[in-house]
Amino acid sequence: MRLPLVKTAALTPQQKPLYDDMRQGIENNFKGFTAVADSGELIGPWNPWLRFAKFGGPVWDLVKAMSTSPSLPRPVREVAILVTGAKFHAGYELYAHVLVAELRGLSDEKISTIVAGQRPIDLTLEEGVAYDVASSLNAGGVLPQLCYDRAVKVFGLEATAELIYLVGLYCMVSVTLNGFDIPIPEPAGT
User: Fold this and answer.
1) What is the pTM of this model?
2) Which element (helix H / strand E) includes 165?
């Protein structure tokens, strides 16, 4: 880990409201994995976003926009997030979203296959479209027209835009995690 955790007692006036907002958002929307240390410091991508609030604040705003009343079904979102985390080999991202995907009802077989960088054979129609869009976008280049058209047909234009932005956001999250070498949390009791 390249950045020490921002201590809550040392928060600057710029960091304090961001910390409070992120802490509340984590408690309300990011359940099932460790995002806050026992002593109150934020871990995962939240630590660098808090440390560099000039950049982290706008990223957090995007996270909130993407997390508030999503139009895509939650398991479908997790497929796209896992595809992206797997592409970047982002340890914390995979740790967190494997747990979330399990809570959202994705089978262990689907999750492990996606994390291994492969397309599961038993994806639902919507999960398959999300997988294909995320996989294609993570490969680089223009999203193929057939893939885009299929997403619009299955999800509608608004939710397709949500999917594209979701993949982009989790590319940024993964790069943040990898750039600052953010580890997965230690298991409790170690």
Assistant:
1) 0.95
2) helix 157-179
